[in-house]
Amino acid sequence: MESIRYSPDARKVMAAGPNTHNEAFMSEPELNILQDSVFSFDARGVAKRFRHAAIFGALDVLQLGETMRFGNDHDPIPLLNQIMQHYGEAFSIDYRSRDPGLIVIDFTRK
Fold this sequence. Notes:
Elements: E1 3-6, E2 13-16, H1 22-27, E3 38-42, H2 48-60, E4 67-72, H3 77-87, E5 91-99, E6 102-109
Parallel strand pairs: 3-4
Antiparallel strand pairs: 1-2, 4-6, 5-6
């Protein structure tokens, strides 16, 4: 059974528990060396019915210049449209990877 662990500062959201996909997400060379202002969010470890709420919650607490590095198993086009409608130009959205089964996007608060 997978669980979600929130860090004390409520900005780092990580998948935790046995058999999570977090190891694969964080094993990519450019992904596992995260700066203090880059926080990982692996959506593959979050139940689908909670994903969008968890993602918006994580984006809400990002400070100016901070980045959420988002990992997912598919390209989240509907989610990106919702983010643009909700936040407008408050975030830059940059794809880091478009490999099958691992889409990685940086959301940086502007």
